[in-house]
Amino acid sequence: MRYAGLEDVELMHRLALARTISGGMAATGAEEIVVNGVLAVCDPLGGLYLPETGTLVVSDLHLEKGAAFARRGMMLPPYDTIATLNILSAVITRYDPKVVISLGDNFHDRKGSEHLPADLRSLITAMARGRDWIWINGNHDPDGTVDLPGTCTDELFHGGLVFRHEPSLISGKGEIAGHLHPSATVRRREKSVRRPCFASDGARLLMPAFGVLAGGLDLRHRAMHGLFDRDALVAHLLGRDRIYSVRYGNLIG
Amino acid sequence: MDIVETHSSGRDAALLPRPFQKWFAEKGWQPRAHQLELLSRSTSGENMLLIAPTGAGKTLAGFLPSLTDLTRRGKIPPGSAFTGIHTLYISPLKALAVDIERNLMKPVSEMGLEISIENRTGDTPQAKRQRQKLNPPDILLTTPEQVALLLANKEAERFFKDLKYVVLDELHSLVTSKRGHLLSLGLARIRKHAPHMRTIGLSATVSDPMDLQRWLVPQSAVEGEHPALPAGLVHVTGGAAPDITIMRTEDRIPWSGHVSTYAIPEVYEEIRRHKTTLIFVNTRFQAELLFQTLWTINEDNLPIALHHGSLDAGQRRKVEAAMAANRLRAVVATSTLDLGMDWGDVDLVVHVGAPKGASRLAQRIGRSNHRMDEPSKAILVPANRFEVMECQAALDANYLGAQDTPPVGEGALDVLAQHVLGMACAEPFDPVELYDEITSASPYANLSWEMFERIVDFVATGGYALRSYERYAKIRKTKDGRWRVSNPAVAQQYRLNLGTIVEATELNVRLVKRNAKGTVGRGGMSLGKVEEYFLEQLVQGDTFLFAGKVLRFEGIRENECLVSNAFSLDPKIPAYAGGKFPLSTYLADQVRGMLADPDRWGVLPDQVRDWLNIQRERSMLPARDELLIETFPRGKRFFMIAYCFEGRLAHQTLGMLLTRRLERAGAHPLGFVATDYSLAIWGLNDIGAMVRSGRLSLSDLFDEDMLGDDLEAWLDESYMLKRTFRNCAVISGLIERRHPGKEKTGRQVTVSTDLIYDVLRSHEPDHILLEATRRDAASGLLDLARLGDMLARIRGHITHRDLDRVSPLAVPIMLEIGKEPVPGKAHDAVLQEAADELIAEALG
Q1: What are phi and psi for residue B22, nearest 5 degrees?
Q2: Phi, psi for A239 (deg, rounded to 5)
Q3: pLDDT exceeds cutoff 50 at B4
Q4: Residues of A at the B interface, defined by Cβ within 8 angstroms
Q5: Contact of B718 with B782, CB cutoff 8 Å
Q6: Does residue A133 belong to any structural domain of this protein?
Q7: C-alpha distances out from residue B389 to A52, B362, B396, B806, Å
Q8: Which has the closest alpha carbon to B79: B135, B32, B34?
């Protein structure tokens, strides 16, 4: 009998973990990997830290998703932005990065950053103080951000890697991308667990969605086809307080 | 008053206008006493409830007041001022509205009455609906959803102002659901448009008629004011006692499962012996399987048809028409035919599987033989050994006239939110007036002003403590204190989302071939539909039972689930379907009583009696108010079985809570399974030894305090609440209903209600929608009230039997472990193999 284990459980863990870290009780549980020769740390809160350049990458924040739906008459809880920013703040506290890259779909729609309530705006401003902040434009928010610290761009080359929102279909070498919200299902005996994950074959890396209302898309979905060398593909799943790395071929026991 | 069915004297018939008297005379009929009583009391202004068995001429009784009134009024001359509808007839089923139109038109045209009668359902073309608004018929036959739509319209007052009668059919089945809640609110609004309107409720026998009598009248909103008189009651009793038997078979009665395939040859014989047989089952999968199996032995090519809710509407209409024309010998049907469809010469009802409730059985048996002075004939076919006892209990209850219909519950908050938005779409509302109107509906009579305000706030901006959506409000308060919709798009959205039935999304299952490389082809046979939530937990390669086969899950492509043949007998993934209705409290008590009293076993088949006798030797049979708990090892695991007899839902909740407690006690529980009769939990540690050594106290384990903190903690991580939340979110209008076929394929564009639930719960745990969810779950999915009653009942009455092997009584539930097939479609042959070994062990 399975009565738990889908990814929504993981969200509660992330929210709780973020609170623990903000409270000063830092646990690591992160996993070091190499992407295109660059050392990268996958953090269980959903951020990727590149120690060589002091860069923190997060993707698909989908801030103000609740508000975007409210504009269309569906009054989703207005707490998704603060929940996402709390987790972001925790991961920034943990690594104190020089550069923060938000990899697109930073806001759920074009109006999101313009209508961002002032208290949330000042939270971002506080987090960005003393660091470089790069907003990569995504398909949800192609026009960039309004009245927020940092720079907006479609693409960024930085420290031997290329950062863009949608994974390139031409070449993925050295690419860090988002957009697809990868998640993976692990099955052992009678239990199956689905979690968001970092997905990398060593050449490219797909980031898990960071936003709390973003949801996930299974690695086996056809939108993922052709992006990776599946023999080398490893899913780094976001666990309760650590990363679990599982080879693609071993996901189903 | 109670009326024992009689025919009336000629003097009473004077109540009827001449064409009616003539028509009755020509037919050689007499109006029945209850028809005239209802007519006279309704005409003099009373709201009325008619409780009568089927075949008592209930429909005609319900319409006589309005037909006679319309006859006296005469046709409205052309060129007169607009006249709204005179009579509104509301039925829970579209098909019933259509059926009634047919049945009503007949006497109306035979009497030559100039009365226009039309139906209006979801299937009515747009042009006709438009025309109905401009030129309403005298009598409109419709459903609760259509009433809500009509009321949310600016023209509502004009349409309803002339209304004299509202006839509510099958009221007993409507009032206990959210549709009934919505309808009660609609009635409250109709009364505002037409203050002199009278209600006429038609119902089968229920446990507490006063519930319905109150439901039919406005409740007093003002304190100190006299409460409205409940509706008058005409209760027709009598009619011939039904002739019910339990099918006896030479074949072995199965230990578990829900499909009575063993008895199909006997069922077929009965079909051959009767003119028209109605075969009822509890789920559509049982219907499918039974239908197919019947046809494999249908050597005489008897016209046997199938009728259930997943079938195409056109196909269902065909079956209904063929039935009405007496062209069929048998129909296999689910609850879609439960309600008063009036048709054909059914001379036998076969009920396959236990009826789960005494009242449900009585209503289904009433389908046979619509003339109430002749006995209905019915045969019950139990699907397993516990069901034999359950059928016997139901049969006894039927003779005693015992009723176990559920009570009318408190009105749901999500329905209220939907209604409030609908009322704003109709016209700007004054909150105090609307509150008074809403609390005049009996399910909402106890709604507090504070709760009402929270609902209005929820409708406007989501009702969050963080007030950030004011600028996006759906309804706004104007300067005169009234609430109006912000823009026309809101009304459009309301219309698309209206209704209280949230269908689980289902995907078509298609059988494809796998080639040597493991890739799957396209095309292939469609096997049926499976609910999306079940598929969500599958990964490629998982095997499960469906359509009588063990299938291998290959993936989801567009809106289809691809599967291949698994060539295996052992499905990996269990699913929990079973019967749709949990066992009623009344029948459960009867079954416990029968179990405890060997004197009553005489009526049971030998096999079942033997089974109980061996149980008595090997373990014991619990007394009526005793809870028997057995523990025993099997394989590498240790089992604990609790024979609670409280229905699957309550057992499931109990299972969730007990596993938490056993975990804490160090028993390492691994899983559990629940049936209507018992609960099995298994784990790595010897629970029996723990009890023996005093390390585990069963009375502590089953203490009522589990409904406190353990329940709270479990609810916090339960996915079951998330499914309830999803329904509440849709009905309350928080998220938009998915319209099948209109979803975008590929990437998910909708938002997961599970994620919304988590975010909301971590930031505003007392939000109104979470409260609505908890209330719903407590009364529905979790069956908390029943669980609480049981825990109180068994306190101090727990008996433990520590056995060295599985007991006979435990066999049925042991067979369910890991074997209960996907949504109901049992293939008992597969179960049998796993079963034989276990049975040998228990009896050997």
Answers
A1: -65, -45
A2: -95, -175
A3: no
A4: 1-4, 6, 8-9, 11-12, 15, 65, 67, 69-71, 73-80, 82-83, 117, 185, 187, 190, 192, 212-213, 215, 217, 220, 223, 251-252
A5: no
A6: yes
A7: 74, 17, 11, 21
A8: B135
Q: How many CB atoms lie within 10 A of CB B195?
A: 10
Q: Is A2 among the domain residues?
A: no
Q: For B28-39, what is each residue's pLDDT tens digit?
A: 888 889 999 999
List, for residues B493-514, the tens digit of each pLDDT value: 899 888 887 766 667 788 888 7
Q: Which domains does chain B have, with CATH numbers?
A: 2-237 (3.40.50.300), 243-400 (3.40.50.300), 414-499 (1.10.10), 585-704+793-843 (no CATH)
Tokens read off for B123:
């299937």
Please indicate if any CB of chain A lies within 8 Å of the CB of B539: yes
Among the residue ranges B75-79, B208-212, B736-740, the one predicted with the least confidence is B736-740
Q: Residue B780: what pLDDT?
A: 74
Among B736, B752, B760, select the one facing A77 at the smallest CB separation. B760
Calpha distance B594→B393 (Å, rounded): 8
ipTM confidence score: 0.87
Q: Which amino acid, one-letter code, is at A111?
A: K
The C-alpha angle B178, B179, B183, rounded to 5 degrees, equals: 115
Residue ranges making up the domain that contains A76: 7-23+33-250
| Contact state of B759 with A75 under an 8 Å Cβ cutoff | no
Please give, rounded to a whole number of angstroms, the shortest distance from the CA of A39 to a CA of chain B.
31
Assess if residue A1 is contained within a domain. no
| CA separation for the pair A192, A5 (Å, rounded) | 7
Residue A243's pLDDT band (cuts 50, 70, 90):
confident
* Average predicted confidence (pLDDT) for chain B: 82
Nearest alpha-carbon partner for B672 in B706, B646, B637: B637
Written as six digits, the tokens of A237 are 């799943």
User: What is the rounded distance in angstroms from the CA atom of residue B717 to the CA atom of residue A241?
Assistant: 17
Which residues does chain B have within 8 Å of residue A12's beta carbon, measured at their own beta carbons?
Answer: 717, 758, 762
DSSP string, chain A: ---S-SHHHHHHHHHHHHHHHHTT------EEEEETTEEEEE-TTS-EEETTTTEEEE----BTHHHHHHHTT----TTHHHHHHHHHHHHHHHH--SEEEE-S--BSSTTTTTT--HHHHHHHHHHHTTSEEEEE--SS-TT--SS-SSEEESEEEETTEEEESSPPSS--TTEEE-SS-EEEEEEETTEEEEEEEEEE-SS-EEPPP-STT---EETTSGGGTTSS-TTT-EEEEE-SSSEEEEEGGGSB-
- Secondary structure (3-state) at B118: strand
Residue B813 identity? I
Query: Quick check: is A83 in a domain?
Result: yes
Query: For the residues of B9-58, what is the DSSP string, one character each?
Result: PTTGGGGS-HHHHHHHHHHT---BHHHHHHHHHHHTT--EEEE--TTS-H
pLDDT of residue B716: 66
User: Which two structure tokens, joined as six digits, stand for A95?
Assistant: 């690594």
Q: B548 falls in which pLDDT band (50, 70, 90)?
A: low
Alpha-carbon span A200 to A195, nearest angstrom: 15
Distance CA B472, CA A74 (A): 9
Structural domain count of chain A = 1
Instruction: Produce one character per residue of B780-808: b if its CB has 16 or more CB atoms within 10 Å, e if not.
Output: bbbbbebbeebbebbeeebebbebeebbb
Q: Rg of the Cα trace of chain A?
A: 17
Strand partners, A46: none
CA dihedral angle for residue B793, residue B798, residue B799, residue B804, rounded to 10 degrees = 120
Neighbours of A36 (CB within 10 A): 18
pTM of the model: 0.82
| Residue listed under structure tokens 């999304």 | B505
DSSP string, B682-706: EESS-HHHHHHTTSS-HHHHT-GGG
